[in-house]
Amino acid sequence: MMKISLPYGKEKQSLNVDESILNGVLVSQIEDYHPGKRQTELVEEAMNNPVDSPKLSELAVGKKKVVIIASDHTRPVPSKVIMPLMLAAIRKGNPAAEITILIATGFHRLTTRAELIGKFGEAIVENESIVVHDSGDLESLVKIGTLPSGGELIINRLGAEADLLISEGFIEPHFFAGFSGGRKSVLPGIASRVSVLANHCGEFIAHPKARTGSIDGNPLHIDMLYAARAAKLAFIVNVVINSEKEVIYGVAGDCDSAHIKGRQFLESLCKVKAIPSDIVITSNGGYPLDQNIYQAVKGMTAAEAAVKSGGVIIMLAQSNDGHGGEAFFNTFKDEKNLELMLNGFVNTKRDETIPDQWEAQILARILLKAKVIYISAAPEVMIREFQMTPARNLAEALRMAKKYLNNDNASITVIPDGVAVIVE
């Protein structure tokens, strides 16, 4: 027997698996990478050697209104490490700069004060100007152009009117944008709902290039990079983190060039070959990425790439925040025919995209390939509305999977962290 452990919230769940039916465990090599430097040293080194850009302290000279885009509560960005260094660099170049930290909520709910303190620490929350972006607050938004896809590019006015717009973030595989980080700080980060909906349309989500680790020819990425340039995103500080949410690598500089360098590093560590199995067990990497069902769809796409058609995905995501999107939930509550749902999304015009359509579209695609058994703290009735089967723990879920397949010897692949790998 082999004992496997998967992250669940801030803890872990474990299971003993018969090695005779365990095809393999797909993990990123990130856990084997040891930079030999402290987290602050890695970020400082990146900021002191920016890619295709002057240093942040130099960019800040003469800039009055400086806006730092920061990720929200759904992202495990180690802001306590990054943000103090960015603030210090800005003030080194311009002690009189008026700095605003703009929280990139994108289409998510607003970040709470408690979550801000957890993210930045009390000192920064108490002493810095922090604004939480609201994609539906029309008065705080302004149009700055038209996306390559034809959608309106509308972003937060603070970002648009900044003398210097910069961002912090982290780079990880992303299930339809290819990779997180970089240009995503602007779109969807500080964009209006109108712009996010246009970019996340059914046509783009269905595009074969809109997949984990895919950038070239990805229509969502093309829109996102355009938005970052149009907003004049001048400098980014992005990191790669391990499963303990610690910085193992940093990049800084131009929003595209630095991001390319960062994702090349990440790609060298997290690409894995699929091992097709009857059952694939995975997670969403634990807190904060597994706070809701909406976010957990990301981890499921890794399992989707490895599970055999007609097989079972066992998904571990605490989901203490529930479904994570009212429209996302209502889509599944109101439409039980998955094929009809999926076809409807693909054929929906770009300017008629509904909120959370992209997440529902991808989940429907997964459910049409495999049964999903979902381990969480969310209400069972909610899980069932999503056409998934609730379970309390890994042992129960595995028994259910074998019973569903009518095969006690069903093959198993384990992907401990579904958002940390690119499964090919």
Bulk shape: globular
Distance between the termini: 27 Å
Strand order of the largest sheet: 3-19-15-16-17-18
What radius of gyration results from the CA coordinates? Answer: 21 Å
Low-confidence stretches: none
Counting DSSP H or I runs of 4 or more residues, the number of helices is 16
**Helical proportion, percent range:** 25-40%
**Helix and strand composition category:** alpha/beta
Residues in β-strands, percent: 25-35%
User: Quick one: biggest sheet?
Assistant: 6 strands, parallel
Number of strands: 20
Mean pLDDT figure: 96
In short:
The protein is an alpha/beta fold.
Short key terms for the protein model shown above:
424 residues, six-stranded parallel beta sheet, single chain
How would you explain this protein's 3D organization?
- There is one protein chain.
- By secondary structure, this protein is of the alpha/beta class.
- It is 34% helix and 25% strand.
- The protein has helices spanning 39-48, 56-59, 79-93, 113-120, 122-127, 157-160, 193-199, 202-205, 219-230, 257-270, 293-304, 326-334, 338-346, 357-369, 380-385, 394-405, and strands at residues 2-8, 11-17, 22-25, 65-71, 98-104, 129-132, 141-146, 152-156, 164-170, 173-174, 178-179, 233-241, 247-253, 271-272, 277-283, 307-316, 371-375, 389-391, 412-415, 422-423.
- Strands 3-19-15-16-17-18 form a 6-stranded parallel sheet, with helices on both faces. A 6-stranded mixed sheet has the order 6-5-4-9-12-13, sandwiched between helices. A two-stranded antiparallel ribbon has the order 1-2.
- α11 links the parallel β15 (277-283) and β16 (307-316).
- α11 (293-304) packs across α14 (357-369) and α13 crosses α14 (357-369).
- The chain is globular and about 70 Å long.
- It starts with a strand and ends with a strand.
